[in-house]
């Protein structure tokens, strides 16, 4: 999930005062709708469009889910449009001290120059199958960890039954309405995804972190990928038509993509724990790591290069959490949420039949939060965030856990460890990705220091983990000593038994082995005291909502395909009106020459050729969130007119509620992409494929 | 203020549930009492002591205030006992790449080896004069900025009238009860303060940041200074007698020192703004800077050396704020505060005469918080925290503001800029302190980056400050170009007019000059919209408290001399009982050999000589807070038995309330100091002076 949310931090507070309620039928242009419950009539009535099932099917079949982002097919030969910031990780991994594709861009003159992105997948949704009864049935009569295990096992079973070929299929059971409904989403999957085009970082990410979430905005946040099979581009007759013309103010816009996560259906007690515990700890730890990465970047040009993408990701996350916290500490916003909850509870209480069926899941969740407050820090430090971002640690943990589960009979394995799933893990591990030892040591040191700080030095797990050594020394020993940077070694170790791993002598493997029981224990506690009862209560609340408000509701985002609708429209805040468009000429006016406000070299070199009146970025009222990055923005005719890449400042509270007057999606227009391909990056091959002269 | 509060972060939450109310007469051992309102009878009744005015006078005359800390006279020749962490700044400033007195300790064999601490003062309170009527009278009929200016001018006038010789006298008008009372505190001041003894950092700060606020604790957090005049030690016939024996469990203990700041009398709306805005921003920014300093420390041995004290200070502050936030997000704690406020308001409302006199200051403060929320970020970034900790920036700001005020007639100058005060500033500027350019650039870069981030890149003041340059480039240009690292240059520039400064060509001076109007404007806004109305409302609330509860109350801490009482006592939390003492042998058991748990070299070298049964550190129920560091801990006879240096984990919420069952003061015993001077550091000269064989 990485639709970037930049935060103009001074302006929080009142930004989210007016919000409508996800718990009641949606108003304005609110909603991240599933394709099987899209409000066709509402949209056609409001915007005079002629959306029908065929329109929806074509859009759905053109929508692509890629790692953490969204995308779309835009030619018959497997060409995929997404954001630059969704392919920059690939560009970074393909780069070296000699070739910096992040800084200089990645341009291809022929198909042969297109390069495979390590670990990149592309998934196109083919089927949606309701599996609510099977999932709910699996947990019947069970509690805590047993409940979580039974649910997980059933989920994995459904997935395995429906996807027998994990190399070309993905099956995923997805929860909707926080447990109100479960559906199997089945995808056609492609594992050979190649980078076709990425502009220079200064073109795509002009303004850097300071401009992130700013609008007016001047960013060519676009990139192209292509799916291959058997070494050839995949034929994709169903795709979106490229419209190189910018929309006009008021034009209807649709966004098809995978919003990552919203929390609009959480109860007050859940929101309060986010506000008081999860978000503060996350912001504080992220900030310290941010300082480390910033300082590390000053030590050499190479350090600066390798830090680029990790730092971008970290700063992006920081803003998301900071923005969430702004909403959660806004008394008006929280007052409104409180009112909504009170209304639902009152309506449940008013109907004896419903009340008897629902019970008091709000009270249950309050009790869960008390347990969660106690367990959160050990769960976070020892399990959920263990390794602090180190790839080498992650490899070791994957290998150790696979070995342990493989040693068990199938029926006793934890969910997600079927043979098919293990084979998939093996393929992932074999991918070649560069490792920066300096960065790895920073991640591990930071994580161990924070674990000691937050769990205290006298905590038994901390003592076992650190022994008599300093965290930085341990990190150094592990990173310098492990052989897991080599994909061949990883493949070899993935096949080992726990005993063989213990005898391997690899220090990172030994470290993970030594601490894994404690980590699994805290995960089991969390499942038992938090995940299990939360799932049960969430289902009850979803049923309460269906009973009171009917089923014409959209669910919270779960990184599954959604469609949102809206229109090109600016906004007015505290008397200042922000128009919906920027133009390419504006980039040259905003550029100062100093990072991150230096214009990209190709933009400078070709300034005289650029049509400065071209619409660059634009905003619309669509309701989206992180994970929607790269989503095609589509007009009434179903043509693609841009790639969504950000939200405006006011959409920060979008995790918890949508405000139609202020929340905006930020999109880079196909008009600007076309202009850049033609007059800045000179890509006639791509233009021809897109059907543009 | 730097009594260190370490936080065992996992254990917050319930830690502060039981608190008594500063707004009602104090119970248990609560209270940071002024010397003119000490509850003699209560203490004598409870502890069977014979405290009388003579006892109080002798303690008061032996108490010393030093920069940000507390201390006491312990010999007739000006010898001062305080904490190591109160003299480590001096040790750091006296150090160089060749002589590292922080790491190796600072030991003296003769008086001649005692070295003057740059900028160090020592102040002994001589008079307390009530000036409430004068101060309150000065603001009569005025509002906002005019009110603040009139109050400030009267305060400065009182101070100047009473202290004509600023080299040997300090006069300070101090607010008590948040404006309920004002008193002039007059001190005998010494400006030649020399370092006599500091142990190795690993002896004093064993366990480092992880153990900070931990107990059981094994830290020799002690240091000695000496006051000089005319090149000779000052004769100090009044001083505390050194008792080299540890107290027993249950023994009464007094702590005389300068608690820096508490917020026990703040209203709910004030606490909520702290919780939602001030503390989060502070924690987040501090964490990022912390990450930078940690990473900078890894770049070289010299960088590690210079970062030591700044990083210690930063981590200490982080814990204080984090601990505060733990209390402010604890629903039980805040519920109790809310009840207390409701009770006071109800009792005011119940008496028409009082109600008419008091009005609704709680409502007024609610409105003030709305303004403060809007103004806080610009005020913080452009004025209150401007420069981000850079000494060179601070010098430039001092010089520029002095020049501007000096150019005005006396009556129009801002408070604090009388000729006497300016002369004092000049003396401070002339002190020689080392400057690390790398550290200076980190501070400035971090500050400018955060200013741009929080005020946004399009803010007019940010644009004016940065122009077309990147923050890191500006920082580099300022630090490399300025001559203000040279005390002679500072002295010369301090005498210049604004015009001469503008013509000087110094880039740091030019930078401050260019941005100073904006900074002063935001300060004026803050004074007018926040400080002024807060002072007025605070006075009303103090009067309400006096009217309802009488005057047998202690005021919030304001870094003025206070006396607290209590007893040596451990505590029990969640079924675990922590005994009140540690012993020197425990240090050797806790030591791992890895930083920060490596024992000091002198401790290792002399292990066989040390009496391991010596009481090392102990806890007592005294109510103290940051600023109390170095305070003498005194027995019933008035003898010194230790130096307070920390609070336990539960005292974290002490800013807002005291819990007698859990809050503890942590003290290094005179028994341990004596043992260390004798058998580890071999200081017969000091032992003889302390009257110990």
Tell me what the structure shows.
The structure is a homodimer of 693-residue chains. Chain A has 693 residues and is α+β, with helices and mostly antiparallel strands. The first copy, chain A, folds into 2 domains: 7-121 and 191-264 and 555-689, Thrombin, subunit H, CATH 2.40.10.120; 268-549, no CATH class. Chain A has 25 helices and 21 strands. In chain A, the strands form 3 sheets. In chain A, strands 3, 4, 5, 6, 7, 8, 9, 10, 11 and 12 form a 10-stranded antiparallel beta sheet that branches. In chain A, strands 1, 2, 13, 14, 17, 18, 19, 20 and 21 form a 9-stranded mixed beta sheet that branches. In chain A, strand 8 (169-176) and strand 9 (181-190) form a beta hairpin. The two termini of chain A are 35 Å apart. At the A-B interface, helix 8, helix 9, helix 13 and helix 16 of A face helix 8, helix 9, helix 13 and helix 16 of B. Chains A, B: Belongs to the peptidase S46 family. Chains A, B: GO terms for molecular function: dipeptidyl-peptidase activity; serine-type aminopeptidase activity. Chains A, B: Catalyzes the removal of dipeptides from the N-terminus of oligopeptides.
